[in-house]
Amino acid sequence: MAADSGLELIHLVKRYGSTTAVDRIDLRIAAGSYCCLLGPSGCGKTSTLRMIAGHEVASEGDILLGARNITALPAAGRGTAMMFQSYALFPHLSALDNVAFSLKMKGVGKAERHRKAAELLERVSLGHLAQRKPAELSGGQQQRVALARALITEPKVLLLDEPLSALDPFLRIKMRAELKDWQKTLGMTFVHVTHSQEEAMALADQVVVMNNGRIEQDATPHELFNAPRTEFVARFIGGHNVVPSTRGLLAVRADRTRLSRTPLPEGDSAVAGTVREVEYQGTHVLLTLASARVGELTVMLPEAEFDAAPWQRGDSACAHWELARAHVLA
Fold first, then answer.
1. Is the pTM of this model over 0.85?
2. What is the dihedral angle through the alpha carbons of 229, 230, 235, 241, rounded to the nearest 10 degrees?
3. How much is the pLDDT for 52?
4. Among positive and negative, which fits the CA dihedral 244, 245, 247, 253?
5. Do 167 and 282 lie in a common domain?
6. Cα 30 → chain centroid
């Protein structure tokens, strides 16, 4: 880890009264990487982000940025910047003045702060809209203004709180690609909170799955999807069936699960059930099976395979897989 901008959390705790929101987590984020904190509402991911930013006081533990312990420092002195879910732009200020605002608070002269703000707006392709107010900008343009405003303080770490949640699906995908490009271009550490598995998988070098204030798994997207460590991760990431076996709980990817009309002996590699839902999803068809043994399974069949022998609701079926392609959960 680079000594100047790697981020480390050590036994970090956040309590709100008798409720523990973050429970002694340890985490290392490499300098210049894109890390997503992923999990359901209430899992502790936003509290963690706000403690890193200095907007929440840690109840216990330490936050290190490079060689500095920043746990007790004010937000403005940490070397971090936060981009909020709502963007939090001042409605009465132009894009230029929104970006320049933090420099104004630091006493930087108007000409100098406007020069720096204009440079950043050009960098996010908004120089031609510098005089527009937030209400005159699209959601994606507002997000770029918020990004430029965060970058003007030259932070070592950019913190993003659900930055894409307010955008429509098409724009969300476009802005996802732009965020990744900006992170690579800037060479900066990004820490991004999301509840979207798809978003985390698309953006992150490192995905940290949280549940009940603790880290369930810290891995690359590829490792997370192919080798979920716990039942919670397998179910939350999606695309997996969780099946009891003689080896404990198995996770089997839905796209590695096949369907047979011929009954097979139930066991570690087969489960009998009834087709409950059939959803056409373009390149594949997603089938949901009801099973007395495991409750519910999903099977992802290629479109051509489904078309050659369609399944209907109510059909009896046997889901099966190669045991070598199943993953034993902790």
1. yes
2. 80
3. 98
4. negative
5. no
6. 17
